[in-house]
Design brief:
The complex is a heterodimer of chains A (about 300) and B (about 170). Chain A is α+β, with helices and mostly antiparallel strands. Chain A is built from three helices and twelve strands; from the N terminus they run H-H-H-E-E-E-E-E-E-E-E-E-E-E-E. Classes of the chains: A alpha+beta (about 300), B mainly alpha (about 170).
Protein backbone atom coordinates (compact mmCIF):
# COMPACT_ATOMS: atom_id res chain seq x y z
CA UNK A 1 0.00 0.00 0.00
CA UNK A 2 1.66 3.21 -1.16
CA UNK A 3 0.04 6.50 -0.14
CA UNK A 4 -0.26 9.09 -2.91
CA UNK A 5 1.79 11.71 -1.13
CA UNK A 6 4.64 9.19 -0.73
CA UNK A 7 5.10 8.56 -4.46
CA UNK A 8 8.08 10.91 -4.67
CA UNK A 9 11.44 9.62 -3.53
CA UNK A 10 11.99 10.17 0.17
CA UNK A 11 14.80 12.67 -0.54
CA UNK A 12 12.41 15.10 -2.27
CA UNK A 13 9.49 14.65 0.07
CA UNK A 14 8.48 17.83 1.89
CA UNK A 15 6.27 18.44 4.91
CA UNK A 16 4.91 15.90 7.33
CA UNK A 17 3.62 12.57 6.08
CA UNK A 18 -0.13 11.77 5.96
CA UNK A 19 0.37 9.19 8.72
CA UNK A 20 1.90 11.80 11.03
CA UNK A 21 -0.89 14.25 10.13
CA UNK A 22 -3.49 11.60 11.00
CA UNK A 23 -1.74 10.87 14.30
CA UNK A 24 -1.62 14.59 15.06
CA UNK A 25 -5.35 14.91 14.23
CA UNK A 26 -6.19 11.98 16.52
CA UNK A 27 -4.09 13.52 19.31
CA UNK A 28 -5.93 16.85 18.95
CA UNK A 29 -9.25 14.99 18.91
CA UNK A 30 -8.34 13.08 22.09
CA UNK A 31 -7.34 16.35 23.75
CA UNK A 32 -10.66 17.95 22.80
CA UNK A 33 -12.58 14.87 24.00
CA UNK A 34 -10.80 14.96 27.37
CA UNK A 35 -11.35 18.69 27.77
CA UNK A 36 -14.93 18.77 26.43
CA UNK A 37 -17.59 19.20 29.07
CA UNK A 38 -15.33 19.74 32.03
CA UNK A 39 -13.27 22.68 30.87
CA UNK A 40 -14.10 26.35 30.55
CA UNK A 41 -11.91 26.74 27.46
CA UNK A 42 -13.58 23.91 25.50
CA UNK A 43 -17.05 25.10 26.58
CA UNK A 44 -16.19 28.56 25.25
CA UNK A 45 -14.90 27.02 21.99
CA UNK A 46 -18.09 24.99 21.56
CA UNK A 47 -20.29 27.98 22.40
CA UNK A 48 -18.47 30.22 19.93
CA UNK A 49 -18.68 27.61 17.17
CA UNK A 50 -22.37 27.01 17.93
CA UNK A 51 -22.90 30.76 17.84
CA UNK A 52 -21.26 30.85 14.39
CA UNK A 53 -23.30 28.04 12.86
CA UNK A 54 -26.61 28.76 14.62
CA UNK A 55 -27.82 31.05 11.77
CA UNK A 56 -27.03 28.26 9.26
CA UNK A 57 -28.94 25.68 11.32
CA UNK A 58 -31.91 28.03 11.72
CA UNK A 59 -31.83 28.83 7.99
CA UNK A 60 -31.80 25.09 7.17
CA UNK A 61 -34.89 24.60 9.30
CA UNK A 62 -36.82 27.10 7.18
CA UNK A 63 -37.44 24.87 4.10
CA UNK A 64 -38.60 22.04 6.37
CA UNK A 65 -40.85 24.43 8.26
CA UNK A 66 -42.27 25.75 4.97
CA UNK A 67 -42.86 22.18 3.73
CA UNK A 68 -44.64 21.32 6.97
CA UNK A 69 -46.81 24.44 6.62
CA UNK A 70 -47.72 23.51 3.04
CA UNK A 71 -48.47 19.94 4.12
CA UNK A 72 -50.74 21.22 6.87
CA UNK A 73 -52.49 23.51 4.40
CA UNK A 74 -53.16 20.57 2.09
CA UNK A 75 -54.66 18.38 4.82
CA UNK A 76 -57.99 16.83 3.88
CA UNK A 77 -61.08 18.57 5.19
CA UNK A 78 -62.46 15.32 6.64
CA UNK A 79 -59.33 14.90 8.73
CA UNK A 80 -59.71 18.44 10.04
CA UNK A 81 -63.36 17.86 10.92
CA UNK A 82 -62.46 14.65 12.75
CA UNK A 83 -59.76 16.55 14.64
CA UNK A 84 -62.21 19.30 15.57
CA UNK A 85 -64.70 16.73 16.88
CA UNK A 86 -61.95 14.99 18.87
CA UNK A 87 -60.69 18.30 20.27
CA UNK A 88 -64.21 19.24 21.30
CA UNK A 89 -64.56 15.96 23.17
CA UNK A 90 -61.17 16.52 24.79
CA UNK A 91 -62.15 20.07 25.68
CA UNK A 92 -65.28 18.81 27.44
CA UNK A 93 -63.21 16.25 29.34
CA UNK A 94 -60.63 18.88 30.27
CA UNK A 95 -63.30 21.26 31.53
CA UNK A 96 -64.65 18.54 33.77
CA UNK A 97 -61.13 17.76 34.98
CA UNK A 98 -60.40 21.45 35.52
CA UNK A 99 -63.44 21.78 37.75
CA UNK A 100 -62.32 18.90 39.94
CA UNK A 101 -58.75 20.25 39.91
CA UNK A 102 -59.99 23.61 41.23
CA UNK A 103 -61.58 21.83 44.15
CA UNK A 104 -58.43 19.79 44.73
CA UNK A 105 -56.25 22.91 44.49
CA UNK A 106 -58.33 24.68 47.15
CA UNK A 107 -58.10 21.62 49.40
CA UNK A 108 -54.38 21.39 48.76
CA UNK A 109 -53.79 25.08 49.58
CA UNK A 110 -55.69 24.69 52.82
CA UNK A 111 -53.66 21.62 53.76
CA UNK A 112 -50.40 23.40 52.95
CA UNK A 113 -51.43 26.37 55.06
CA UNK A 114 -52.29 24.03 57.92
CA UNK A 115 -48.99 22.25 57.66
CA UNK A 116 -47.17 25.57 57.53
CA UNK A 117 -45.70 24.81 54.16
CA UNK A 118 -45.12 27.54 51.69
CA UNK A 119 -46.38 26.81 48.20
CA UNK A 120 -43.53 26.21 45.82
CA UNK A 121 -43.16 28.77 43.12
CA UNK A 122 -41.72 28.12 39.73
CA UNK A 123 -41.39 30.73 37.04
CA UNK A 124 -41.87 29.75 33.43
CA UNK A 125 -38.76 31.42 32.15
CA UNK A 126 -38.98 31.31 28.40
CA UNK A 127 -40.69 29.62 25.50
CA UNK A 128 -37.95 28.08 23.42
CA UNK A 129 -37.70 26.32 20.09
CA UNK A 130 -35.79 23.18 19.15
CA UNK A 131 -33.25 24.01 16.44
CA UNK A 132 -31.17 20.84 16.18
CA UNK A 133 -31.38 17.28 17.47
CA UNK A 134 -28.29 15.46 18.64
CA UNK A 135 -27.10 12.41 16.72
CA UNK A 136 -25.15 9.26 17.57
CA UNK A 137 -24.24 9.08 21.23
CA UNK A 138 -25.84 12.51 21.69
CA UNK A 139 -29.18 11.34 20.24
CA UNK A 140 -30.93 12.01 23.55
CA UNK A 141 -29.94 15.67 23.48
CA UNK A 142 -31.09 18.70 21.54
CA UNK A 143 -30.23 22.33 20.98
CA UNK A 144 -32.61 25.20 21.76
CA UNK A 145 -32.64 28.72 20.35
CA UNK A 146 -32.15 30.58 23.65
CA UNK A 147 -29.09 30.97 25.83
CA UNK A 148 -27.66 33.09 28.61
CA UNK A 149 -28.70 36.25 26.76
CA UNK A 150 -32.32 35.27 27.49
CA UNK A 151 -31.63 34.14 31.03
CA UNK A 152 -31.26 30.43 30.33
CA UNK A 153 -28.78 28.69 32.63
CA UNK A 154 -27.51 25.13 33.08
CA UNK A 155 -29.71 23.20 35.49
CA UNK A 156 -33.04 24.66 34.42
CA UNK A 157 -35.84 22.26 33.58
CA UNK A 158 -37.41 21.99 30.12
CA UNK A 159 -41.08 21.06 29.95
CA UNK A 160 -43.91 20.62 27.44
CA UNK A 161 -47.65 20.62 28.17
CA UNK A 162 -47.40 16.81 27.96
CA UNK A 163 -44.83 16.68 30.75
CA UNK A 164 -41.17 16.89 31.63
CA UNK A 165 -38.79 16.90 28.65
CA UNK A 166 -35.32 17.29 30.13
CA UNK A 167 -32.80 19.63 31.65
CA UNK A 168 -30.46 22.33 30.31
CA UNK A 169 -26.92 20.97 30.62
CA UNK A 170 -24.93 23.82 29.07
CA UNK A 171 -25.91 27.31 28.00
CA UNK A 172 -24.15 29.41 25.40
CA UNK A 173 -24.93 33.01 24.59
CA UNK A 174 -27.67 32.30 22.05
CA UNK A 175 -28.18 28.54 22.29
CA UNK A 176 -28.32 25.90 25.01
CA UNK A 177 -27.91 22.11 25.14
CA UNK A 178 -30.74 20.12 26.65
CA UNK A 179 -30.48 16.51 27.85
CA UNK A 180 -33.70 14.52 27.63
CA UNK A 181 -34.89 12.51 30.65
CA UNK A 182 -33.81 9.47 28.59
CA UNK A 183 -30.20 10.68 28.33
CA UNK A 184 -27.64 8.64 30.22
CA UNK A 185 -26.98 10.19 33.60
CA UNK A 186 -30.22 12.16 33.77
CA UNK A 187 -31.80 11.48 37.18
CA UNK A 188 -35.33 12.76 37.81
CA UNK A 189 -36.92 12.31 41.24
CA UNK A 190 -40.44 10.99 40.68
CA UNK A 191 -43.38 9.54 42.51
CA UNK A 192 -46.10 7.11 41.49
CA UNK A 193 -49.50 8.78 41.24
CA UNK A 194 -51.35 5.62 42.34
CA UNK A 195 -49.33 4.77 45.45
CA UNK A 196 -47.22 7.84 46.20
CA UNK A 197 -44.10 5.64 46.07
CA UNK A 198 -40.95 7.67 45.35
CA UNK A 199 -38.04 6.74 43.17
CA UNK A 200 -35.54 8.09 40.67
CA UNK A 201 -36.09 7.89 36.91
CA UNK A 202 -32.74 7.30 35.20
CA UNK A 203 -32.13 7.72 31.48
CA UNK A 204 -30.61 4.81 29.56
CA UNK A 205 -29.44 6.66 26.44
CA UNK A 206 -32.14 5.01 24.33
CA UNK A 207 -35.15 6.72 22.72
CA UNK A 208 -38.42 6.60 24.69
CA UNK A 209 -36.92 4.45 27.43
CA UNK A 210 -35.86 5.12 31.01
CA UNK A 211 -35.75 3.01 34.15
CA UNK A 212 -37.16 3.60 37.58
CA UNK A 213 -34.43 2.81 40.09
CA UNK A 214 -34.37 1.93 43.77
CA UNK A 215 -37.78 0.26 43.74
CA UNK A 216 -37.99 -2.77 46.04
CA UNK A 217 -38.81 -6.01 44.23
CA UNK A 218 -41.99 -6.39 46.30
CA UNK A 219 -43.14 -2.77 45.77
CA UNK A 220 -46.60 -2.12 44.36
CA UNK A 221 -45.73 -1.02 40.82
CA UNK A 222 -47.75 -2.07 37.78
CA UNK A 223 -47.50 -1.44 34.04
CA UNK A 224 -49.57 1.63 33.20
CA UNK A 225 -48.73 3.44 36.45
CA UNK A 226 -48.17 7.17 35.93
CA UNK A 227 -45.02 8.84 37.26
CA UNK A 228 -44.99 12.53 38.15
CA UNK A 229 -42.27 14.81 39.46
CA UNK A 230 -41.89 14.77 43.21
CA UNK A 231 -40.48 18.32 43.19
CA UNK A 232 -37.68 17.22 45.55
CA UNK A 233 -34.92 18.37 43.20
CA UNK A 234 -36.26 21.93 42.91
CA UNK A 235 -35.85 21.75 39.14
CA UNK A 236 -39.38 20.82 38.10
CA UNK A 237 -42.69 21.75 39.69
CA UNK A 238 -44.17 18.85 41.67
CA UNK A 239 -46.88 16.82 39.95
CA UNK A 240 -45.76 17.18 36.33
CA UNK A 241 -46.18 14.00 34.26
CA UNK A 242 -42.79 12.35 33.61
CA UNK A 243 -43.36 8.81 32.39
CA UNK A 244 -45.58 5.73 32.32
CA UNK A 245 -44.48 2.30 33.56
CA UNK A 246 -44.43 -0.17 30.67
CA UNK A 247 -42.89 -3.24 32.30
CA UNK A 248 -41.91 -4.47 35.77
CA UNK A 249 -39.54 -7.38 36.26
CA UNK A 250 -38.49 -8.78 39.61
CA UNK A 251 -35.35 -10.83 39.87
CA UNK A 252 -34.91 -13.29 42.73
CA UNK A 253 -31.20 -12.43 42.88
CA UNK A 254 -31.79 -8.70 43.31
CA UNK A 255 -33.54 -6.69 46.02
CA UNK A 256 -34.74 -4.19 43.44
CA UNK A 257 -37.23 -4.53 40.61
CA UNK A 258 -36.34 -3.57 37.03
CA UNK A 259 -38.97 -1.02 36.07
CA UNK A 260 -38.93 0.22 32.48
CA UNK A 261 -40.81 3.41 31.70
CA UNK A 262 -41.79 5.43 28.64
CA UNK A 263 -41.43 9.23 28.99
CA UNK A 264 -44.66 11.22 28.89
CA UNK A 265 -43.26 13.93 26.63
CA UNK A 266 -41.35 13.25 23.46
CA UNK A 267 -39.60 15.73 21.18
CA UNK A 268 -40.66 13.87 18.04
CA UNK A 269 -42.77 16.29 16.02
CA UNK A 270 -42.58 18.96 18.73
CA UNK A 271 -40.69 22.20 18.35
CA UNK A 272 -41.72 24.47 21.21
CA UNK A 273 -40.95 23.96 24.87
CA UNK A 274 -40.86 25.98 28.09
CA UNK A 275 -37.86 26.42 30.35
CA UNK A 276 -38.76 26.47 34.05
CA UNK A 277 -36.67 28.12 36.68
CA UNK A 278 -36.18 26.48 40.06
CA UNK A 279 -37.84 28.36 42.95
CA UNK A 280 -35.49 30.40 45.12
CA UNK A 281 -36.06 30.55 48.83
CA UNK A 282 -37.48 33.94 49.83
CA UNK A 283 -37.44 35.19 46.29
CA UNK A 284 -40.36 36.69 44.50
CA UNK A 285 -39.95 35.68 40.88
CA UNK A 286 -40.97 38.23 38.31
CA UNK A 287 -44.14 37.23 36.50
CA UNK A 288 -43.14 35.39 33.38
CA UNK A 289 -45.28 35.07 30.27
CA UNK A 290 -47.54 32.02 30.57
CA UNK A 291 -46.54 29.09 28.43
CA UNK A 292 -48.95 28.64 25.61
CA UNK A 293 -48.25 25.95 23.08
CA UNK A 294 -48.20 27.56 19.65
CA UNK A 295 -50.86 26.80 17.10
CA UNK A 296 -48.60 24.34 15.28
CA UNK A 297 -47.78 22.36 18.43
CA UNK A 298 -49.09 18.83 18.38
CA UNK A 299 -51.68 17.80 20.96
CA UNK B 1 5.49 26.93 -14.20
CA UNK B 2 4.79 25.86 -10.66
CA UNK B 3 4.06 22.12 -10.49
CA UNK B 4 1.01 22.70 -8.30
CA UNK B 5 -0.68 24.79 -11.00
CA UNK B 6 -0.43 22.01 -13.60
CA UNK B 7 -3.60 20.13 -14.45
CA UNK B 8 -3.78 16.57 -13.12
CA UNK B 9 -4.19 13.55 -15.38
CA UNK B 10 -7.97 14.06 -15.42
CA UNK B 11 -7.47 17.58 -16.75
CA UNK B 12 -8.58 19.34 -13.57
CA UNK B 13 -6.69 22.45 -12.62
CA UNK B 14 -5.96 22.67 -8.87
CA UNK B 15 -7.84 25.97 -8.33
CA UNK B 16 -10.91 24.70 -10.18
CA UNK B 17 -10.72 21.45 -8.26
CA UNK B 18 -10.45 23.32 -4.95
CA UNK B 19 -13.68 25.12 -5.78
CA UNK B 20 -15.38 21.82 -6.66
CA UNK B 21 -14.15 20.22 -3.44
CA UNK B 22 -15.32 23.15 -1.30
CA UNK B 23 -18.68 23.28 -3.09
CA UNK B 24 -19.28 19.55 -2.69
CA UNK B 25 -18.25 19.62 0.98
CA UNK B 26 -20.50 22.60 1.68
CA UNK B 27 -23.41 20.83 -0.03
CA UNK B 28 -22.81 17.60 1.86
CA UNK B 29 -22.54 19.36 5.25
CA UNK B 30 -25.70 21.36 4.51
CA UNK B 31 -27.65 18.20 3.57
CA UNK B 32 -26.34 16.46 6.69
CA UNK B 33 -27.58 19.27 8.93
CA UNK B 34 -31.16 19.16 7.65
CA UNK B 35 -33.18 17.07 10.08
CA UNK B 36 -35.92 14.73 8.80
CA UNK B 37 -36.97 13.30 12.18
CA UNK B 38 -35.36 10.73 14.45
CA UNK B 39 -36.25 7.56 12.50
CA UNK B 40 -35.06 8.82 9.13
CA UNK B 41 -31.94 10.42 10.63
CA UNK B 42 -30.66 7.00 11.77
CA UNK B 43 -30.90 5.65 8.22
CA UNK B 44 -29.23 8.66 6.60
CA UNK B 45 -25.72 8.24 5.21
CA UNK B 46 -23.01 10.52 6.53
CA UNK B 47 -22.66 12.41 3.23
CA UNK B 48 -19.89 14.72 4.44
CA UNK B 49 -17.79 11.71 5.45
CA UNK B 50 -18.37 10.05 2.06
CA UNK B 51 -17.39 13.25 0.23
CA UNK B 52 -14.26 13.64 2.40
CA UNK B 53 -13.39 9.99 1.62
CA UNK B 54 -14.04 10.48 -2.09
CA UNK B 55 -11.79 13.52 -2.40
CA UNK B 56 -9.05 12.04 -0.25
CA UNK B 57 -8.86 9.10 -2.68
CA UNK B 58 -8.39 11.41 -5.70
CA UNK B 59 -4.82 12.07 -6.73
CA UNK B 60 -3.69 15.72 -6.43
CA UNK B 61 -6.90 16.55 -4.59
CA UNK B 62 -6.75 19.61 -2.34
CA UNK B 63 -8.79 17.77 0.33
CA UNK B 64 -6.59 16.24 2.97
CA UNK B 65 -6.61 15.03 6.56
CA UNK B 66 -6.85 18.61 7.88
CA UNK B 67 -9.93 19.26 5.74
CA UNK B 68 -11.55 16.12 7.08
CA UNK B 69 -10.65 17.03 10.65
CA UNK B 70 -12.18 20.52 10.35
CA UNK B 71 -15.38 19.17 8.73
CA UNK B 72 -15.60 16.61 11.55
CA UNK B 73 -15.23 19.33 14.17
CA UNK B 74 -18.02 21.31 12.50
CA UNK B 75 -20.21 18.22 12.63
CA UNK B 76 -19.34 17.74 16.32
CA UNK B 77 -20.65 21.21 17.08
CA UNK B 78 -23.74 20.89 14.88
CA UNK B 79 -24.80 17.45 16.14
CA UNK B 80 -23.91 18.10 19.81
CA UNK B 81 -21.50 15.14 19.89
CA UNK B 82 -18.43 15.50 22.13
CA UNK B 83 -15.86 17.83 20.55
CA UNK B 84 -13.18 15.87 18.69
CA UNK B 85 -15.20 12.66 18.14
CA UNK B 86 -16.22 13.23 14.53
CA UNK B 87 -13.05 15.27 13.93
CA UNK B 88 -11.00 12.16 14.76
CA UNK B 89 -13.22 9.88 12.68
CA UNK B 90 -13.11 12.19 9.63
CA UNK B 91 -9.33 12.68 9.94
CA UNK B 92 -8.77 8.92 10.20
CA UNK B 93 -11.09 8.24 7.24
CA UNK B 94 -9.28 10.84 5.11
CA UNK B 95 -5.93 9.24 5.95
CA UNK B 96 -7.18 5.74 5.07
CA UNK B 97 -8.63 7.23 1.86
CA UNK B 98 -5.22 8.67 0.93
CA UNK B 99 -3.50 5.39 1.76
CA UNK B 100 -5.97 3.31 -0.25
CA UNK B 101 -6.31 5.67 -3.21
CA UNK B 102 -4.25 3.52 -5.62
CA UNK B 103 -6.01 0.32 -4.66
CA UNK B 104 -9.42 1.99 -5.02
CA UNK B 105 -8.53 3.16 -8.53
CA UNK B 106 -7.44 -0.27 -9.71
CA UNK B 107 -9.88 -2.45 -7.74
CA UNK B 108 -13.02 -3.87 -9.41
CA UNK B 109 -16.38 -2.43 -8.39
CA UNK B 110 -17.03 -5.03 -5.67
CA UNK B 111 -13.50 -4.56 -4.34
CA UNK B 112 -14.04 -0.80 -4.18
CA UNK B 113 -17.23 -1.28 -2.17
CA UNK B 114 -15.46 -3.63 0.23
CA UNK B 115 -12.60 -1.16 0.74
CA UNK B 116 -15.08 1.66 1.34
CA UNK B 117 -17.00 -0.49 3.84
CA UNK B 118 -13.80 -1.35 5.72
CA UNK B 119 -12.73 2.31 5.77
CA UNK B 120 -16.10 3.46 7.09
CA UNK B 121 -16.10 0.62 9.62
CA UNK B 122 -12.71 1.76 10.94
CA UNK B 123 -14.11 5.24 11.60
CA UNK B 124 -17.28 3.78 13.06
CA UNK B 125 -15.34 1.51 15.40
CA UNK B 126 -13.34 4.52 16.63
CA UNK B 127 -16.61 6.36 17.28
CA UNK B 128 -18.07 3.27 19.01
CA UNK B 129 -14.98 2.92 21.21
CA UNK B 130 -15.09 6.56 22.27
CA UNK B 131 -18.85 6.21 22.88
CA UNK B 132 -18.13 3.19 25.08
CA UNK B 133 -15.66 5.22 27.15
CA UNK B 134 -17.92 8.27 27.45
CA UNK B 135 -21.44 6.89 27.47
CA UNK B 136 -20.97 3.29 28.58
CA UNK B 137 -23.81 1.94 26.46
CA UNK B 138 -23.66 3.00 22.81
CA UNK B 139 -26.00 1.15 20.49
CA UNK B 140 -23.94 -1.14 18.17
CA UNK B 141 -26.70 -1.26 15.54
CA UNK B 142 -26.31 2.38 14.53
CA UNK B 143 -22.53 1.97 14.32
CA UNK B 144 -22.92 -0.95 11.90
CA UNK B 145 -25.78 0.55 9.92
CA UNK B 146 -23.82 3.75 9.14
CA UNK B 147 -20.94 2.07 7.21
CA UNK B 148 -23.34 -0.28 5.39
CA UNK B 149 -25.55 2.59 4.24
CA UNK B 150 -22.43 4.60 3.36
CA UNK B 151 -21.12 1.71 1.24
CA UNK B 152 -24.44 1.48 -0.62
CA UNK B 153 -24.38 5.22 -1.30
CA UNK B 154 -20.73 5.24 -2.44
CA UNK B 155 -21.43 4.64 -6.17
CA UNK B 156 -23.98 7.48 -6.18
CA UNK B 157 -21.60 9.84 -4.36
CA UNK B 158 -18.81 8.91 -6.80
CA UNK B 159 -21.07 9.55 -9.79
CA UNK B 160 -22.23 12.92 -8.43
CA UNK B 161 -18.69 14.05 -7.62
CA UNK B 162 -17.42 13.04 -11.07
CA UNK B 163 -20.31 14.89 -12.74
CA UNK B 164 -19.74 17.96 -10.59
CA UNK B 165 -16.04 17.89 -11.40
CA UNK B 166 -16.66 17.54 -15.15
CA UNK B 167 -19.29 20.31 -15.24
CA UNK B 168 -16.92 22.65 -13.43
CA UNK B 169 -14.10 21.79 -15.86
CA UNK B 170 -16.34 22.48 -18.86
CA UNK B 171 -17.53 25.81 -17.45
CA UNK B 172 -13.91 26.81 -16.69
CA UNK B 173 -12.93 26.13 -20.30
Amino acid sequence: MQPVANREPALFRRGISPGSKCLLGLLFSSLLLVLDGGNHWSAALRNNLEHLIAPLIIALELPGEAAREIGRGLSAQGELLRQIARLQRENDDLRTTARSLDILQRENDELRAVAGLRAERFALRHTVQLIQRGRGIASQRFLIDAGTRKGIRAGMGVVHPEGVVGQVTAAGETTADVALVTDTGQNTPVELVRTGLRGVLVGEGLPNRASLRFIASNADVQPGDQLVTSGLDGVYPAGMPVATVISVRSDAQSDFAKVICKPAASIDGRRHFAVVEPALEGSNPAPAPPFEPPADAHP
Amino acid sequence: MNRSSLPDRRGNRPMAQTRVVLLSLALAVTLDLISFGSTLDILRPDLALLVVLYWSTRSRSPANIGTGWCIGLLRDVATLTPLGLNAGVYGLTAWIGIALSKRLETAPFSGQLLLVLLTLLAGSMLSWGVGLLIDGSPSPQTHLAGPLIGMLCWPLVGLLMRNLSMRRRRSDR
